[in-house]
Amino acid sequence: MQFLNGQEPSTDLTYDDVFLAPRRSGVESRFDVDLATSDGTGATLPIVVANMTAVAGRRMAETVARRGGLVVLPQDVDTSAVAEIVSWVKTRHPLWDTPLALHSDDAVADALNLLPKRAHGALVVVDDEDKPLGVVDEAACTGVDRFARVGEVADAHPVVLPLETDSREVFEQLHKQGRTVAIAVDADGRLAGIMTKKGALRAAIYTPALDAEGRLRVAAAVGVNGDVAAKASALLDAGVDTLVVDTAHGHQEKMIAALKAVRSASPTVPVVAGNVVTAEGVRDLIDAGADVVKVGVGPGAMCTTRMMTGVGRPQFSAVAECAAEARRLGKHVWADGGVRHPRDVALALAAGASSVMVGSWFAGTYESPGDLQRDEHGRAYKESFGMASKRAVSARTRTDSPYDQARKALFEEGISSSRMRIDPQNPGVEDLLDQITSGVRSSCTYAGAHTLAEFHERALVGIQSAAGFAEGRPLPSGW
Ligand SMILES: NC(=O)C1=CN([C@@H]2O[C@H](COP(=O)(O)OP(=O)(O)OC[C@H]3O[C@@H](n4cnc5c(N)ncnc54)[C@H](OP(=O)(O)O)[C@@H]3O)[C@@H](O)[C@H]2O)C=CC1
Ligand SMILES: Nc1nc2c(ncn2[C@@H]2O[C@H](COP(=O)(O)O)[C@@H](O)[C@H]2O)c(=O)[nH]1
Ligand SMILES: [K+]
Hints:
Catalytic activity: IMP + NH4(+) + NADP(+) = GMP + NADPH + 2 H(+)
Bound molecules: NADPH dihydro-nicotinamide-adenine-dinucleotide phosphate, the ligand Nc1nc2c(ncn2[C@@H]2O[C@H](COP(=O)(O)O)[C@@H](O)[C@H]2O)c(=O)[nH]1, potassium ion
Pfam family, one: IMPDH
Number of strands: 20
Cofactor: a monovalent cation
Family: Belongs to the IMPDH/GMPR family. GuaB1 subfamily.
Binding site for NADP(+): 246-248, 296-298
Mean pLDDT: 96
Distance between the termini: 35 Å
């Protein structure tokens, strides 16, 4: 990465402070850009879903890994629950989505409750042997008595295809038959998957993040307190592919000790550690065994650290400096927090991050764990909260004595409740991934880069005023 016209920034910069200048390019198509990461985590997309309880659960893990990204399960989830989630994710099909199933005599009300759990917008009606009888979507439930049976409203002639069907063929069959979803069945005719027309297209564009056995990958976080080696071993036994050692102040002795403990549990598993914002922090965590250092103190949407403490660093500069140091040592960084637009992802990658962590933005999707709620205007939203908020801290310390709980609750550095709107045009996390990847693919071609390594090498970054940033915003309602 270079600054435009040899500019030398006189202050630390945020994503909003910078822009990318286009360069002469030989990349003919945006589809010629390979977004795979090279940090050893096996992700084919430079997106990591943050280990936040309001964001990362099993549906998120499955959906994002299928498109090539990684999801980090939060440290607050019990190890036994992590083991359950991991084994579930690892039995998901790498191309077909997990279907939601009901029986003919279930009520339409049940269908309406289940539909927002998955972005594919359909439920499969099955018999007692799990063989599909029909498909129900929201339209089929509209204007119908909520106690009607789903068997009465289902489309009884859905598109049913063998699990091995090529995604292009799925797309073409759906197009030909004017349907929105296809159902996959295994060799015994049992329900095995579901795919929308968009899903069929995505299956051809994205490459799932798979482990050596061809199963979807998943990561999990471990804190710096307690028996870190035992927890790390338990997570590895559960099948976790990448460990994230996570604490607010990553550049502390406890983190160094925790990293050593994790390394004693496995010398080879990819280990991510953070958060830090200085080259010195990067060096110390790499010395202690980290393969990837997580960068970002204070940029997160749920984060009040900078207001409470004055500590942190504008994220673009933090990522650029930390990435340069990690690269010098043959390692990597993830840019963590503060991402609100596809451009922020592009800028973090230009600054040298191997992947970009997203939290709150993805809380407002069907796949986040929270229940879908509606505000006073009927708009759908989900609740999000920070992992250092009173709400998260009291959940994390629920087994401590009331006295210890009260002591820990004093150090609140996050928001306990916020509403993340579900964008009706982009309600699923895959819709957001589509936006991000199309933005980043395009950024790469503007820079003349086929890969993320080339993108970082060729990126020409300019510094802009607040007016410069404002000029780039669309004005959908005119001026
Ligand atoms: N990226 C960011 O800007 C931030 C992220 N977070 C996220 O919140 C979650 C909870 O993290 P965390 O609060 O570290 O809790 P943890 O449960 O990971 O514990 C942190 C440990 O570090 C000690 N500690 C010492 N100094 C600090 C400090 N300045 N801030 C926090 N802990 C300190 C704490 O001791 P004691 O409690 O006795 O002081 C405690 O033992 C994590 O997921 C983290 O990533 C939280 C804040 C900032
Ligand atoms: N200071 C705090 N930081 C937090 C808290 N919860 C999460 N985080 C950090 O934010 C990122 C995600 O950022 P986002 O802008 O995409 O939401 C996450 O990975 C953590 O590093 C918190 O309570 N306080
Ligand atoms: K913030």
